[in-house]
Give the backbone structure.
Amino acid sequence: MRTFFLAPTRYGVGLTSVTLGLVRALDNLGLRVKFFKPIAQLHVGDTGPERSTKLVQRIMDHEPPAPISSHRAEDLLGDNKGDVLMEEIVALFNEASDDAEVMVVEGLVPTRNMPYANRLNSDMAKSLNADVILVSEAGDDKLADTADKLEIAADSFGGIKNPKMIGYILNKLQQDQFSQLTKDGHPVSLPEFARKSFEPLGYIPWDSALSSPRTLDIASHLGCELINEGEINSRRVTSYTLSARTPANMAHHLKPGNLVITPGDRDDIILATCMAALNGVPLAGLLLTSGIQPAQSVMELCSKAIASGLPVMLTEWDSYKTATQLDRMSNELPVDDNDRVENVMNTVAERLNTEWFKSFCAGLAERRLSPPAFRYNLVQRAIAANKRVVLPEGDEPRTIQAAAICQERGIAQCILLGKKKVVEQVARDNGVTLPEGLVIMDPDSVRGRYVEPMVELRKHKGLNAPMAEAQLEDTVVLGTMMLAMNEVDGLVSGAVHTTANTIRPAFQLVKPKRDAGGLVSSIFFMLLPDQVLVYGDCAVNPNPTAEQLANIAIQSADSAVAFGVEPRVAMISYSTGASGQGADVERVREATQIAKEKRPDLIIDGPLQYDAASVESVARSKAPDSNVAGRATVFVFPDLNTGNTTYKAVQRSADVISVGPMLQGLNKPVNDLSRGALVDDIVYTIALTAIQADVDKA
């Protein structure tokens, strides 16, 4: 087992963010990583529990033990019982590290209330036999000065020549500093450490988006009265404007993420803010000061804008004091802000020297595919595939944002079907910057060139040119023709279209693969807390025959392999083994036999009840001789009713993220979205599609 002890060089380096990012990066590598905070350190305004431990409990799949309180630690140190404190820390560490391959330990931050933190960090690192990583920031220092301060901080741990002092992470770097310290996307050593075994383990540039609080956090900090709650839980404050000017002179501040602060009697500012909200600008909110309730007549005029989700708050502070209080607001991660925590973890993880950590932790154990590792691998493989994906719903806000993310990160070359001016306006209204290279294609300008090829593809069905032209008015049909003619590699739709609207053109124009007997099926990737499972078929085939069910099992197993899941296929039924009779069980039994005969290389068993397939203790009782029971990774359901119900029950009851449905069996990848899909859902579906195109080509 490896143990990494993260020690800050001083206050304010963002230790918790870096620690959580390292946990995510190691998890992405497929390692069983656990977190440990030996001694609690409450921040100003905290009443407990300890913030870092609570964050890990909410985000990761394990529950670290509660750390020793700072009062307990101080009492023992004051009584000259430092050895007892270390023994208690080691005991807690042993409890926390059960079944772990890597432990990430967060040290203490030197503060006015804890001036002994550096000495205690050194003692804890020695007691845990941990490898030490220093976390620092350059601030306004020259890089040479930063290196000097790192070397001084390392002296507390025996100096940088100590083999346990393995490296450093620099956080909150300015862009020019970050550029000096990276080459071809990889970190390079500070010049002072170029010939020393003191590794650059990560350089993290400053990103204001990572510190953007929710409007809810602002309201809580100021103790506001809520006039309209709106979307207070999800909107974020990226900037705020103290409005003392006329609307004409402050209108340029009415942009996404801006919090407008104005006295409650400034009717002109209130009306201008609500007009922007009514035009679709997702402002962070309207904060009214001085305890002045706006006039009822003004609120009635603004009712439609307020109903759009605009949070409206009232504080007793005047505008100046309100701004002062906001400047003093803590920048710590709130324990209940899962979205921000995930964003911080993923952003930091992307900037760490993962190749070094991978090499350093090599050979620890068999890798597993955790949900973060699945998502990470998904993105990396999509980037390597470099495929073109068409998005027929090109003027839909979530789709535009997802396309911008994919284009910027290189996940796929996205093509949005829509009018350029409309797409650009929707992007502006939602605060989305369209990156260079993102293609916006006007359907009216290209539709004509697909009429003749579409007639050729469907002439056996009696399709003529006027009929084809009419059908091509549908951008999903148009996008599918682009796919059929090899102009793009995949298609993603469904944010505003039904599943049938997305799939039907694919059946007609792209068509099923012959080697699957013309069968098209689907799978969901179910991202459970500690592993990824594959569910099939939950979206396409209502009542498959035994032959079709066998093909679904084979398709699902092959898809699992393509996405890094080792397939152990369970054919699900209401009976296990030979214990039950009936037509439905016999169909599953027959399907299992057919699948085994077609693909003897696959590990398949059935019929199995769900609990026998997934729970080892049940498997030992119900199917002791099965090589799948209790260890299944691919679950094939007997019909659509069972599959769809099960996936939704697991998704909602266990709060599990599902990625899909991913269609399998088509000649080219077409994938459907839920109409309630989030931006991240669309991004991952685009990545899935890119990888499918790459696998199909291979």
Q: What stands out?
A: The chain has a mean pLDDT of 87. The first helix runs from residue 15 to 28. The chain has 29 helices and 24 strands. Residues 591 and 692 are 26 Å apart (CA to CA).
